Amino acid sequence: MAEEKKRTRRANGESALYLGKDGRWHARVPMGYKDNGEPYRRHLTRPTRKELVDEVRRLEKQRDEGSARQPGKPWTVAKWLGHWVENIAKPVVSENTYAGYEVAVRVHLVPGIGRHRIDRLEPEHLESLYRRMQSAGSKPGTAHQAHRTARTALGEAVRRGHAAKNAAALAKPPRMEEDETEVEPYSVDEVQRLLLEVNKRRNSARWMLALALGLRQGETLGLRWSDVDLDNEYLKLRRNRLRPKYEHGCGEAVPCGRKAGYCPARVQVRRETKNTKSRAGRRAVPLPGPLVVMLRSHREAQARERAAAGNLWTESEYVFTKPLGGPLSPNTDYHDWKRLLEDAGVRNGRLHDARHTASTVLMLLGVPDRVIDQIMGWEPGGAARMRARYLHVTDPMLKEAARKIERAIWGAPENSAVDKDQDNEA
Q: What does the alpha-carbon distance between residue 388 and residue 386 come to, in Å, rounded to a whole number?
């Protein structure tokens, strides 16, 4: 026992184990250095030597792998999330991405799991939060946004040594309902009905860029005339229109009593556009002949509007503007789309469904995958996944497959039953 109590000199970096006067086994495990350069050691104590050795080995493994908690007061989840979203994420992500992170942190994550220590957070804590969110009426998609935010934030905490594991990466998010993920692209008949209604409207080319080429809303509203080459029949996509964000300009002395977006003296605090972040997003897109004609006509109509407005016109280089100039608001554009669907007698759908429609039409036309990826702006590494998500198998495609099977197996003549059905549909 006397030999067990005696401390021996250890080599640098080696853990020291000893039996204390309290009858418990103690260890000092070298973990590196503090910010001020001083050595940092963790103190462990256990009732038996075996228990202590097991714990020392576990901690040494975490230290060697770089996953052990660093010195200093442990972060709470609330404190870490607040620090991460404002000081780590905000400077490097887009305004829209930051806005999504900020809402998930402020509205869901901090109230739900903020009191836990970050190094003691378990997957079950997050899974319980997701269930509570759904019980309170949140959609699975909202819980998924909170889950993705937590996974990203905690992943950064692990990389910096504030936690040994990413609890969100181990947690199971709620299952997405089929009606939230299933998209039915518009049929050729529906697109033609939309085209007839589009031709009656101002900015008609705006909607055809979505239906024919699948341009995203931000890409279309951020388009400038310098990006359009009508002589060579193509356009370049280089930037996205951002949703406006406002602050009050009325002053605290005489508040207007309205939301910031409706303040008479509101001040816009978010830039109008941002450059496309991915190389695939910065792309050239070919223009079909009818779209070239529509854009030429649109440019002439815009010149007439400018002349009629005179000094009231807000000058800008945007292809699609408000009646008195200046960039279109994404919110106004969204409501214009809804009115277009109603007036055309076409089923209700998201504006983004037009992008699904365009990609599916390109597949129906036999356009090679690589060209589809270029037009849609999909990254090479994730293009296959995006095609699986956006390219939809339609009824005509299924009937065509049935026709080919019929001919291959039964040797059916050209005027088979399936062909007759297709003739009747035509």
A: 5
Instruction: Return d(Cα 426, Cα 423) in angstroms, integer.
Output: 5
| Dihedral pair phi/psi, residue 275, rounded to 5° | -65, 145
pTM as predicted: 0.60
Q: Which residue has the tokens 């714990």?
A: 55
Cα–Cα distance for residue pair 186/212, rounded to 1 Å: 11
* Alpha carbons 99 and 330: distance in angstroms, whole number: 16
Tens digit of pLDDT for each residue in 289-327?
888 999 999 999 999 999 999 999 999 899 999 999 988
pLDDT for res 384: 67
pLDDT band at 65 (very low <50, low <70, confident <90, very high): confident
Question: Measured in whole angstroms, how far is the alpha carbon of residue 113 from the centre of its chain?
Answer: 23
Quick one: how far is CA 27 from the chain centroid?
47
Q: pLDDT for 230-244, tens place per residue? A: 999 988 888 888 777
User: Three-state DSSP class for 399?
Assistant: helix
Compute the CA torsion angle 228, 231, 234, 235 (nearest 10 deg): -10
Q: In angstroms, rounded to a whole number, what is the distance separating the alpha carbons of residues 404 and 422? A: 13
Is residue 186 a contact partner of residue 212, using CB atoms and an 8 Å limit?
no
> What burial letters (b/e) apply to 328-367, b meaning 16+ CB within 10 Å?
bebeebeebbeebbeebebeebebebbbbbbbbbbbbeee
Q: Long-range CB contacts (< 8 A, 24+ apart) of 332-339?
A: 333/206, 333/217, 333/221, 334/217, 336/203, 337/207
∠ CA 174-177-179, nearest 5°, is 160
For residue 163, the model assigns a pLDDT of 85
Confidence of residue 417 (pLDDT cuts 50, 70, 90): very low
CB 269 within 8 A of CB 247: yes
Q: State the virtual CA torsion across 298, 300, 305, 310 in degrees, nearest 10.
A: 140
Average pLDDT over residues 365-376: 75
Please work out, in degrees rounded to the nearest 5, the angle formed at the alpha carbon of residue 104 by the alpha carbons of 100 and 109: 160
Q: Which of 28, 27, 54, 55 is nearest to 41 (CA)?
A: 28
Instruction: Using pLDDT thresholds of 50, 70 and 90, give the confidence band for residue 119.
Output: confident
Q: Token pair of 413, please?
A: 């003549």
